[in-house]
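Hey Z.,

So I finally got round to the FE2/S2 (inorganic) cluster thing we talked about over coffee. Here's the setup:
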Amino acid sequence: MSKKNTIMMEAQEIALRINGKDLVVNVKPSLLLIDLIRDELLLKGTKPGCLEGECGACTVLVDGNAVNSCMFLAVNAHGKEIVTIEGLSTVDEPLDPVQKALVAHGAVQCGFCSPGMAMSIKAFKAECDAMNTVPTSGEIKKAIEGNLCRCTGYVKIVEAVESLFEESEE
Ligand code: FES
Ligand code: FES
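And the result:
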């Protein structure tokens, strides 16, 4: 096999939308989504923790679903909409309601888990809103069980999530 053919097999063109922008990029089949996001697109808010699918620090939204980007191949993002923590900010609203709630409830300490936590909460809130349900604290805990936090003890995080539903009930 010629070198040219080898290179063609290694890289694959994918088209995706990330934080509202359409992109076409060439990725190796083995490239992980977290590495595309952090190393090639330079979106450093998505954190590398365990890199084994255990901690949730790398969570992003893929078509609205919370996904561990360390366990997701970039080629599988073809045709999908990706949102990272940076995508929650706008010029007018630098902090999303989820981020505001986490800050307001003292649910951010070292902050390492916070981007992934925020993305999981974002997906969960959208899911609850779509079903028009207000979750119990048990359901909230279940929703964030894939996101490990070494600092907060989770109580403040759960309170922050509960506040999102109190506000939406007003
Ligand atoms: S870094 Fe992906 S789950 Fe821990
Ligand atoms: S705030 Fe430090 S790990 Fe969660």
